[in-house]
From TrEMBL:
InterPro entries: CC_SR_Kinase (IPR050339), Kinase-like_dom_sf (IPR011009), Prot_kinase_dom (IPR000719). Keywords: ATP-binding, Kinase, Nucleotide-binding, Transferase. GO terms for molecular function: ATP binding; protein tyrosine kinase activity. Residues 18-36 have a biased composition (Polar residues). It comes from Ascobolus immersus RN42. This is Protein kinase domain-containing protein.
């Protein structure tokens, strides 16, 4: 195990013992008799870097350590690897590029103690310390091979490209010897020196040469909730859920978001908005969901998932009470939002967050009038209208019916219901076409609407006995809920019940238990 593997291992180990609301990990400092580093200034725990520089290490390793250990380390997930988040200002202020470290770093170069062409009365060593530590830090991150780019710091100083001139252009960087590809990476890295932090209620625009320290947003799918981690303006590390939208930040949208924020803040089963930022034409909304420990998809897919161990020990009676309550809470939430004229762009189990007390929080209502990309819970009419179809109350009812069906199936068949549906579809397809080849989209509910209704009949209405291997008992309200679900997922929009009817039925069921 190399040095960094041991550091990351200790990071992950320490994170499991910390509170789940703390995302920023402090890696332990390393002491060594061979360490040739000046004594560091005392920094707050959240900004204190690990520093270890040994003259016995290969040249390339020294550069990587300087680069990596000068960054915040975000332990986003207890079971995942640490993630570099941003350059902390405190580390840059108390520069780790001391004379001793620079002497080791440029041990193979005779230029470090020579006079630069642009400043006759100082050495390159003095110039780096006085005005080019930020530039050198970025160059230390551009090592794509054994020959590091940090040696180009001498060219930067000669060309007058120092810290106060940041940010640089591609033309500036190519003029001092960087390739086009390395220049692109440099430009991306230099933005981390200019971070913008989120604060409660903020709506900010992040320019090309600015950095927003939010983990998870870059690779998120449009309209689909994702798990995020970030540091706010106070420096606190937070874990939240967010949604990314392909939408420009117009004044009309900001006004709608302000109106929506008021509604969300006063609703028990809707997560309120923490902050919003716009970057590269996309809008990302972060929700106040600190109490959420997972989304509903985790429980439906695998009740024993390590990400949600609290669900597994619950007894059958407790699970039945919880899931019955979920029916009522979700029905009431959809009814309330439809009453305000807000609909959901992608209503799926991932939009339903589960709290520590097994309550539900829904995110995503009213954010956009455009439906998200097609998926397992997409209504059949969207396959006709295309991916840019508008949100509608009928689409929400269809998606809510599918969520109800999967919750019901969890109580009835357990976590293997999805595989049962896929096997059923595969058998149907091969009866029609023996050469049929499966695909991921072939099992989407909306692509097989008639079969779905037939499947609900067979699995929930005609079948009155739970599978023996599940050990479940027949839910008292099974036939009522299954009959309602069958109407909710019908192909004809006019035949689907309205949110008010679904709410009344679920309130009646909850009241009869």
């Amino acid at each position: 195990m190399n040095y960094f593997s041991s550091i990351f291992s200790e990071l992950a180990s320490s994170r499991r013992n910390q509170s789940s609301d703390r995302g920023l990990s402090e890696a332990p400092a390393t002491t060594s008799s061979s360490c040739t580093a000046d004594k560091r200034a005392v920094l707050p725990p959240s900004a204190r870097p690990v520093f270890h520089l040994s003259p016995t290490l290969p040249w390339y390793s020294k550069v990587r350590e300087i680069y990596k250990e000068s960054c915040f380390i975000w332990q986003f997930d207890d079971y995942g690897p640490p993630i570099r988040l941003a350059y902390p200002a405190t580390v840059l202020k108390h520069s780790i590029f001391t004379k001793a470290n620079l002497t080791i770093l440029f041990d193979g170069s005779k230029r470090i103690n020579q006079h630069p062409s642009c400043k006759a009365h100082s050495t390159y060593l003095d110039c780096i310390q006085e005005s080019a530590t930020h530039v050198l830090l970025i160059l230390c991150g551009l090592n794509f091979g054994t020959m590091g780019h940090q040696i180009l710091i001498f060219n930067f100083i000669d060309a007058g490209l120092v810290d106060k001139k940041l940010p640089f252009t591609v033309e500036d960087l190519q003029r001092v010897g960087l390739t086009f590809y390395a220049s692109q990476v440099f430009i991306a890295e230099q933005s981390m020196l200019n971070p913008k932090y989120l604060s409660e209620g903020a709506f900010i625009t992040v320019a090309d040469q600015e950095y927003i320290p939010v983990v998870g947003a870059r690779d998120a799918s449009y309209g689909v909730p994702f798990k995020s981690g970030f540091r706010d303006s106070s420096g606190e590390s937070l874990r939240r859920f967010g949604i990314k939208l392909r939408q420009p930040p117009s004044e009309a949208f900001r006004h709608q978001l302000k109106e929506l924020s008021t509604i969300l803040r006063d609703h028990r089963h809707l997560a309120s908005i923490h902050s919003t930022f716009c970057q590269l034409g996309d809008i990302t909304i972060i929700f106040n969901s600190a109490e959420a420990i997972c989304n509903l998809s985790y429980i439906l897919r695998d009740g024993k998932n390590v990400a949600f161990p609290a669900w597994n020990p619950l007894g059958l009676a407790r699970r039945t009470a919880i899931t019955t309550k979920w029916f009522q809470c979700l029905a009431n939430t959809v009814f309330d939002m439809h009453g305000h004229g807000f609909y959901h762009p992608c209503f799926t189990p991932r939009s339903v967050l589960i709290t520590r007390s097994f309550d539900v929080l829904v995110i995503g209502f009213g954010l956009t009038t455009e439906r998200a990309e097609v998926g397992r819970y997409t209504p059949p009419e969207q396959y006709i209208a295309g991916p840019t179809s508008s949100t509608s109350p009928q689409a929400d009812i269809y998606s809510l019916g599918l969520i109800f069906m999967e919750i019901l199936a969890l109580r009835w068949y357990g976590v293997h219901f999805r595989r049962k549906w896929e096997k059923w579809v595969k058998n149907k397809q091969r009866l029609q076409n023996p050469h049929w080849k499966r695909s991921r989209s072939a099992y989407f509910y909306g692509k097989n609407p008639e079969w779905l209704v037939e499947y609900i009949d067979e699995c929930f209405i005609q079948n009155t006995q739970a599978p023996p291997e599940t050990g479940n008992k027949t839910p008292d309200t099974l036939d009522i809920i299954a009959g309602l679900v069958k109407r909710m997922v019908t192909v004809e929009l006019g035949d689907r019940p309205e949110a008010g009817e679904v709410k009344v039925e679920m309130d009646r069921i909850q009241g009869s238990i």
